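Thread title: Can someone regenerate the structure for this chain?

I was given the following input by a collaborator and told the matching structure tokens would be attached. They weren't. Posting the sequence so someone can regenerate them.
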Amino acid sequence: NTAHAHIIGFNVRANAQARQLSKRDGVTIKYYNVIYNALDDVKAAMEGLLSPEEKEKIIGYAEIRQVFSISSVGNIAGCMVTEGFVTRDSKLRLLRDDVVVYEGEIDTLRREKDDVKEVKQNFECGISIEKYDDIKVGDIIEAYIIEEIARTL
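Best answer:
Regenerated them for you:
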């Protein structure tokens, strides 16, 4: 099966029969006169096949200072962002005595009575954790994001 194949020609040209076969079979022919251009194109094509590297970046910490139990919602962490910031889309780890007790996502992030996208250092907020309710005063929420970095050869 030659579908999606590529032929690289360096200082040559395909004859009529080769051109007809490449059209019929969906094979791309590329011609080059400078070897570095050929190498750059092949490298770029190969890099496009690589999946991106994922890197975790910690963006902030929030200390749970009070726990509010709301019957229809569950437990809400009354927090103070102590470092960096927390975003609605960030992932989180719940730390208790410097040990990770849960890893998941933020369900809601509120500042006063409003849903917000971000809360910065030295501000209070309310955080509910998706599918998790066992939170205690003194727990720390570590907020992080996953960055995708294009891989190169």
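The mean pLDDT is 91.
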